[in-house]
Structure formats: structure tokens, C-alpha cells
Amino acid sequence: MSGVVDAKLAELGLTLPEVVPPLATYQPAVRSGAYVFTAGQLPMVKGSLPVTGKVGAEVSPEQAKELAATCALNALAAVKSVVGDLDLIARVVKVVGFVASAPDFTGQPGVLNGASELLGAVLGDKGVHARSAVGVAVLPLDAPVEIEIQVELVAGA
Questions:
Q1: What is the CB neighbour count within 10 angstroms for residue 155?
Q2: Among residues 130, 121, 147, which one has the least CA distance to residue 9?
Q3: pLDDT 10s digit of each residue in the chain, 157 long?
């Protein structure tokens, strides 16, 4: 760990995980010009989901917020797998989050704050982004949360 972002991760007590292998035919992240787009990242920890179910039913909003942070960490790992160095991130442009929600659950933005707060803590001002929070009926593997991010790279990267 030699980069500024890697040092910040260490300071926060976070370890960038291995890239989560795709569940189907896609890449965890792809680069197009100055941008990297991640696939949806589930809150996988060492190859499995720590919790499954719907937010507002089997999963509390607080648990889901923590899971959203895990998704964001997995997304950073996917970005790093493409560009090799997280210091090449100029900014996080957009975060899209999906929350598997009980029918009466409307707190999706609060859940996604877990991802936004992690990105801000790790990247500072570069982590400030536009965001969409979407409630859905079900996600792959019965995951409570899924996050995708789009980042812009520094000029010349």
C-alpha cells in the first residue's frame, strides 16, 4: 500500500477485498476513455453474502447501510482491478444503488448513505457524487443491496 487512497483505507482500518467474481457473463468493471464503470456490486465478504433478505423485513436499515458500504468497497476493488491505482480517480461521478425492499420500506436513500459515506471517507472531495436510490423487489442471490459506481480518471491516466 503506497498510494494516498491505499493509505486512507489503512487509516480507516479497511482492506480492499479481492474482486468479486462475476455471477454471469460480464466484467466487474470496464474502462471507456477517462471513465470506469463497475457492474453492480453485491455486499460479498470472502465469497458469500453475510445477510440476505429484504430491507425493512429480514434486514434492518442499519444492517443494509453497512452492507451498502461493503458494496462500495467491492466497487473500489473492481475499479482498481482495471486501472491498478485508486489514486488515478479524479472523482466518483455517479452511484446507483438498488435496495431489495419490503413493500412498505421507503428508506432507500438512508441505506445508500452507507456507500456514499464510505466513498467520501476514502476519497474525500473526490468521493462526492450524484446518486440514484432505487427500491426493487429482489436482487441476485437475495442480496439486500447492490451498488454500481462510475468514476472519472485523472487526465492522462
A1: 7
A2: 121
A3: 469 999 999 999 999 999 988 889 999 999 999 999 999 999 999 999 999 999 999 999 999 999 999 999 999 999 999 999 999 999 999 999 999 999 999 999 999 999 999 999 999 999 999 999 999 999 999 999 999 999 999 998 8
Residue with cell 494516498: 4
Q: Which residues, 6 or more positions from 47, have their beta carbon under 8 angstroms from its beta carbon?
A: none
Q: In a 3-state reduction of DSSP, which class is residue 32?
A: strand
Give the three cell numbers for residue 140.
441476485
Dig out the grid coordinates for 54 from the structure: 429484504
pTM score, two decimals? 0.96
- Helix, strand, or coil (residue 121): helix
Distance CA 134, CA 146 (A): 10
